[in-house]
Each structure stands twice: as C-alpha cells, then as structure tokens.
Design goal:
This protein is mainly alpha-helical. The protein is built from 3 helices and no strands. The relative contact order is 0.13.
Length: 100
C-alpha cells in the first residue's frame, strides 16, 4: 500500500490544477470542470485520510460531497445551457447576465 503522503500530494496537485483552471480559463464549461476536479481532489484526500486513520468518517463526508456535486452538476449545466441559448456564448468575460 502506498504511503498517505503520495495520496495527499496527488490530491494537492489535482486541486492546484483545478484552481488554475478556474482562474485562467474563461470558458464556463472548463471552469465548471475545474470545480469538479477540485471537489474530486478533496474527496481523494478525505478517503486517504479515512483509510489511514481507520475511520469511516471521511468516506461518509465523501458521500455527501458527491451528492452535492451531482446536484451542482445538474443545476450548473442547466444554467450554462440557458445562458448559451440566450447569449450564444459561454465565455465568462462576455457574460454580464448576473451583474447589476
């Protein structure tokens, strides 16, 4: 079995890639996928720590995070689809729909 540090390093790398995707990309679908990548990185660290500590608490948290991520995916993709239908773009810089 691999040491926990390998899992946490991988989780940190995945989370960093997700943060960079949110900060640097302007396509809303790419931003959405980067947020999902960050959620999965956190899930990986929860599972690794739960396995290391011999506890089921981390895996229970992952179950709730996955449920929230599924709901967020459904609502987020619906919002992106409706914005695309109205504005015919998914570039975050060109969207001023939710601004005052």
């Amino acid at each position: 079995m691999a040491p926990i540090s390998y899992h946490l390093i991988l989780s940190g790398i995945l989370f960093t890639i997700g943060v960079m995707g949110v900060l640097l990309r302007r396509n809303t679908i790419i931003i959405f996928m980067a947020i999902e990548l960050m959620l999965n990185a956190v899930n990986l660290s929860f599972v690794a720590l739960a396995r290391h500590l011999g506890s089921m608490d981390g895996q229970l948290i992952v179950l709730f995070v996955m449920a929230v991520a599924a709901a967020e995916a459904a609502v987020g993709l619906a919002i992106i689809l409706m914005v695309f239908r109205n504005k015919e773009t998914i570039n975050a810089d060109e969207l001023k729909l939710m601004r005052w």
